[in-house]
Design brief:
Length: about 250
């Protein structure tokens, strides 16, 4: 058997997240059906991570196994002709037999986009928020995240993880004209973590909470004390990094 990594992107608006579900259409389901059709055999896939309903990805990866030696250009052309317009595949690479899109990922990056004025071209891919925000204070709070490794306060309560430890590489806001963009990179993310962080940082930006309050939230490790979860449509999985040694 040969193992391949497939790079893809999708607009998650019409889908119920990444993972296959019984009574709802998911991104993984679409990809598995398309790949199985091209390979003419049922083919299972494994993604680098799970995105929730309505969340997008400008870079996502999956892996699958096949007995065939695939031609990347031909394979990508066939898959893209089958997939709907809001899902696309970009690259196909052969990896070692034990290469794993989820477990071999070294870093994952997300961005969260907030529109500061109404924009008809961003309604599905950015959260409209027109109240005043203290951008500097939000960035000071974001910087504080880098001093911590336990993020239980930002994890969904019902989760099956063994620990809440994440190593953050970056966390900051930038402003581009009428849009705020939150950047965050970590070796792993907890369920609902990024949207919970964004919602809590918004509470800091509105003045509801001080930087001292934000520090207490981090140290108390209680999701109920953190802020609301920002809407899913502003969130993008934007980069997944792998060690070059796994590729053939």
């Amino acid at each position: 058997m040969k193992r391949y990594f497939l790079e893809l992107a999708y607009k998650g608006t019409r889908y119920h997240g990444w993972q296959i579900q019984k009574n709802a259409t998911s991104i993984q389901e679409l990809l598995e059906k398309a790949i199985s059709l091209v390979l003419r055999t049922p083919t299972a896939t494994m993604g680098s991570g799970r995105t929730d309903t309505g969340v997008h990805a400008s870079q996502q990866f999956l892996h699958f196994d096949t007995v065939e030696e695939l031609d990347p250009k031909d394979f990508l052309k066939k898959i893209n002709s089958i997939l709907p317009k809001d899902v696309a595949v970009y690259a196909l690479r052969r990896v070692r037999s034990n290469g794993h899109t989820r477990f071999d990922a070294e870093w994952r990056s997300y961005v969260y986009k907030i529109s500061l004025r109404k924009n008809p071209f961003e309604q599905d891919t950015s959260w409209l928020y027109i109240s005043d925000l203290d951008f500097k204070k939000m960035n000071e709070a974001a910087k504080m995240l880098l001093s911590y490794e336990d993020f239980q306060c930002f994890s969904k309560i019902k989760t099956d993880v063994n620990h809440f430890r994440c190593i953050l590489k970056e966390a900051y806001w930038e402003q581009n004209d009428h849009q705020l963009v939150f950047h965050i990179t970590s070796n792993r993310f907890l369920r609902g973590m990024v949207r919970s962080i964004v919602g809590t940082l918004i509470e800091v930006g509105t003045g509801k909470w001080s930087l001292a309050d934000f520090k207490k939230i981090l140290e108390n490790k209680d999701r109920n004390q953190a802020g609301f979860s920002a809407p899913p449509h502003g969130l993008f999985l934007c980069k997944v990094t792998y060690p070059e040694k796994i590729f053939i």
